[in-house]
Amino acid sequence: MCNDAITRPVDQAIRRIRLEPTPRAARDARRFVSETLTELGHPDLVEDARLIASELITNSLTHAPKYPIWLSIWRTGAFLDLEVWDCSPEPPVYLDPDFFAEGGRGLHIVKELGTACGYTTFDHGKVVWALLELNKPWAHGISWID
Length: 146
Ligand SMILES: Nc1ncnc2c1ncn2[C@@H]1O[C@H](COP(=O)(O)OP(=O)(O)OP(=O)(O)O)[C@@H](O)[C@H]1O
Ligand SMILES: [Mg+2]
What we know:
By secondary structure, the protein is an alpha+beta fold. The protein has one domain: Histidine kinase-like ATPase, C-terminal domain (Heat Shock Protein 90, 2-Layer Sandwich). 33% of the residues lie in helices and 25% in strands. The chain is built from 4 helices and 5 strands. Strands 1-2-3-5-4 form a 5-stranded antiparallel sheet, with helices on one face. The longest helix is centred in the middle third of the chain and has 18 residues, at 46-63. The relative contact order is 0.17. Bound molecules: adenosine-5'-triphosphate (ATP) and magnesium ion. Adenosine-5'-triphosphate is lined by residues 55, 59-60, 63, 86, 88, 90, 92-93, 95, 103-107.
């Protein structure tokens, strides 16, 4: 991690936080997102990124409740990549929308807010990621058509 910070330009360095699997994890993740994106000069992405992080961290807490979770944020080209790593190799499942279901909405929120999202599994865990587009022209002011 230190090497990343040393060898990459500052806005491309990977920012990472390790979260213990406690009820505070989602709150700490949201705070980390706010601080990191503000520092990187992307305050317009803070709200969406906080929501995405909340949903992904909550999922990791549910499915890998005994192990730490890592949240990484880094810039790749025109996108900000938000990644949540956990120690369950089970993949996330994008459930069909069901009005009457109690759950199954989290990944829909992530997909709606992100430009793209996906995951990669490993023997002992996985990463679920979402890309947020940097500098969307409309993010600086929305005009409504009467
Ligand atoms: N980190 C994860 N590890 C393993 N399985 C996951 C993970 N995240 C999601 N899943 C699977 O994908 C499904 C859909 O996740 P999603 O977040 O959309 O819904 P949910 O967590 O079940 O409910 P909600 O987020 O609406 O409270 C989950 O029910 C679970 O089976
Ligand atoms: Mg969920």
